[in-house]
Amino acid sequence: MGKSLLPKRSQKARLGVRGYANLMDLVIAVLLLYPGQITLPTRDFAISTQRTYSIVRAY
User: Fold this and answer.
1) Can you tell me the distance from the alpha carbon of 59 to that of 41, in angstroms, rounded to the nearest whole number?
2) Residues 6+ apart with CB under 8 A from 2
3) Range of the domain at 22
4) What is the DSSP letter of 25?
5) CB atoms near residue 48 (< 10 Å)
6) 16 in any annotated domain
7) For 7-49, how does the pLDDT look when each residue is reduced to its tens digit (9 = 90+)?
8) How far apart are the C-alpha atoms of 41 and 47, rounded to whole Å?
9) Where are the transmembrane segments (predicted)?
10) Fewest beta carbons within 10 Å, which of 31, 38, 42, 50?
11) Which residues 6+ apart lie within 8 Å of 41 measured at CB?
């Protein structure tokens, strides 16, 4: 019995994951520049405030 290989991600999925990682980095960078102003990255990157809080929660 051989090992079953994991399904490969499509190119679109890989780009989506990379784009989300870049978005997280940008949100963290803006919050480091302007601490306590959660609405700045929300407005700049057109994402919800709740999503911004979920990104920052890990940090």
Assistant:
1) 15
2) none
3) 11-57
4) H
5) 9
6) yes
7) 676 766 776 667 777 778 888 888 888 888 888 878 877 888 8
8) 8
9) 20-38
10) 50
11) 26, 27, 30, 31, 47, 52
User: Which tokens go with 38?
Assistant: 């959660």
What single-letter amino acid sits at 22?
A: N
Q: Kindly state the tokens that stand for 33.
A: 């520049």
Residue 48, C-beta contacts closer than 8 angstroms, at least 6 positions apart: 42
- Asked if 24 contacts 10 with a C-beta cutoff of 8 angstroms, the reply is no
Number of domains in the chain: 1
Domain contains 1: no
- The reply to whether 23 falls in a domain is yes
Task: State residue 15's pLDDT score.
Answer: 66
